[in-house]
Amino acid sequence: MRFSAVIVAAGSGSRAGPGQAKQWRLLGGRAVLRWSVEALSAAGAEQIVVVVPPGDEAIAGEVLSGLDGWTAAPGGAVRAQSVLTGLAGLQDRPDDEIVLIHDAARPFVNAGHVRALLDALSDADGAVPALPVADTLKRRAGDAAVTTVSREHLWRAQTPQAFRIAQLRAAYAAWPVDAGEPTDDAAVVERAGGSIALAPGDPMLMKLTYPEDFVMAEALVAGSGQRTTRIGMGFDAHRWGPGDAVWLCGVRIDHDQTLIGHSDADAGLHALTDALLGAIGEGDIGDHFPPTDPKWKGVDSSVFLSHAVDLIQSRGGRIVNVDVTLICERPRIKPHRAAMRERLASLLGLSLDRVSVKATTTEGMGFTGREEGLAAQAVAAVELPN
Ligand code: MG
Question: pLDDT (tens digit, 9 = 90+) per residue, 214-233?
Answer without folding.
Answer: 999 988 887 776 678 999 99
